[in-house]
Structure formats: C-alpha cells, structure tokens
Amino acid sequence: MAFRAEATVHCPDGTPVNLGGWMSYSPGGALGWVRKRAEQVAQQLGAPYDRAVRAWLDDAVEYRWAVDGLAAGIPFVLRAVDAEGCTYAFIARPDVDVRTATAPLRVPCGQGAA
C-alpha cells in the first residue's frame, strides 16, 4: 500500500493553494512529511495561530496513533487557522490508485512556500 501526504491552504476570499505533497510506501514516511511541512508552516504562522500544530508536533502518543491509524487505512488531518481566517490543512491518506502509477514513489510532488 502507498500513502499520499499533502498540504493546502484555503482562504475565505480565494481558491485553495497547494503547499506541496509527497508519496511514500510507509505510513511513517507520509506522516513524517506532514510533520516537516506542518512545522514549517507553524514557524511562519507564529503564536497564537501555531498552537494546534505545535501541540500535535510535541505529542509522541498522538503521532504514534496517527501512524497506526494510517496503517489501518484511516486518513489523518491536521488543521490550523490564521488571523485572516485561512485554513491550513495537512493530510495523510492511503493512496488506492498508486498501483497504476508508473513514476517512482518517494518523489516530492511540489514544495511551495506557505
């Protein structure tokens, strides 16, 4: 099974913006990318808007729960909202269509700035 990780931002007055993505054959690899990207965005958001992201980053039990859940086929979503009402979403999910892909996995799908 493969896993897809992605980050997006949705602002109230605009269209969603892709902040990058990653594919991995392991749930830990996909969630590792989510952790890295979420930490980058949290640094840019600053306090108090980074609170939800930092709480998840600092909680090893929650991270393990997310890895185990993803391995069982349960998607993971982490959200943060900034002062302008933009919602940042960090998602890891099983990718059922990967069997038809011809490109190698573990290649970044995009690395945009937040």
Concise structural overview:
The chain has helices at residues 27-45, 51-57, 60-71, and strands at 2-10, 17-24, 76-81, 87-95. With 114 residues, the chain is of the alpha+beta class. It has a four-stranded antiparallel β-sheet.
Chain-wise SSE layout:
Elements: E1 2-10, E2 17-24, H1 27-45, H2 51-57, H3 60-71, E3 76-81, E4 87-95
Antiparallel strand pairs: 1-2, 1-4, 3-4
Helix pairs in contact: 1-2
Q: Give the strand line-up of the largest sheet.
A: 2-1-4-3
Helix content: 25-40%
Distance between the ends: 29 Å
* Biggest sheet features: 4 strands, antiparallel
Number of H/I helices = 3
Taken as a percent bin, the fraction of beta residues is 25-35%
Uncertain stretches of 5 or more adjacent residues = 100-114
Mass-distribution shape: globular
Radius of gyration in whole Å, from Cα? 14 Å
Q: Average pLDDT, to the nearest integer?
A: 87
Characterise this structure.
The protein has three helices and four strands. It is α+β, with helices and mostly antiparallel strands and 114 residues long. The chain has one domain (2-97). A hairpin with a 6-residue loop joins β1 and β2. 25% of the residues are buried.
